[in-house]
Protein: NAD-dependent epimerase/dehydratase family protein
Amino acid sequence: MKVLVTGATGLLGSRITRQLLDLGHSVSVLHRPSSDRSLLEDAARKVQWVEGDILDIVGLEAIFSEIDYVVHAAAMVSFIPRERRMMRQVNVEGTANVVNACLLAGVKKLCYISSVAALGRPETLQKSAPRPIEINEEQRWTDSTSNSEYSVTKYNAELEVWRGIAEGLNAVILNPSVILGEGDWLKSSTRLFKYVYDEKPFYTEGLLNYVDVADVSEAACRLLLSDISGERFIVSGGTVPYRKFFEDAAAAMHKKAPKWRVNTLLAECVWRFEAIRSFLTGSSPLLTRETARAAQHHFRFDGRKLTERTGIAYRPLQETLTRIGKSLKPVV
Structure:
């Protein structure tokens, strides 16, 4: 099969690309001239590099005309207020362009990589519930201060995919939680490991929903080539308190674990200080209002539907941490 992957130079996209190659498919990678290709260095000669941009609908239509399947993993993740406009363009307009190009070209199937963020958070329940709130694929979006701007863009991007499905597009949606994997640990969720390696002293009270990048890749490839269509799947291997995650990650990397708890009041103070510092210096804030509040959340995402429908068994967290720790330490 001829498969095109957007976002293939990222943590998840590069893993999906290599897995599709291992399965014997012909893989094209949509990339911009400035893209960092280091995560696909080992597969650089096996893929077809196609220069393009998901914001260029005309260019997409020409590229997609020779493609059978599409994995749309390209997205912008940011919690910085000044980057919201670009994030809306990339995540919402870019996804709309991909959907339209798939429809026009008659692509056999689209696998859209969304996020659990697109499911939304029930604010009133979060404030009153005595235990973590479980969210599954039936969760309906509600406007809430618990939803980040990133959440809003991913929700609206999903609406474009559902619109495409209504117009006859064969598609499936994946909603992964925080993806843990080997990559550039100055980017995306891999920065969690950089935080541990640097022996930072603080941890928050919230819960981390996590999944191994290998499990998300396996889910994307299986669902892309399956008869399942018009459905969404949460991809989440488990839930753990941030303190426990940092302790286990530190043990895997032979580092000291954070020991000072950051409560809600302190987090609120820190993000305000960071907002002022960022405004005065023009640098990116280390903590924003959205990231400070997200780190205090107590939600649990239910990933059992994926296992029930595909048979995929999630990797244990300890196995994931051990593998990633060994991979990242020599990079320092």
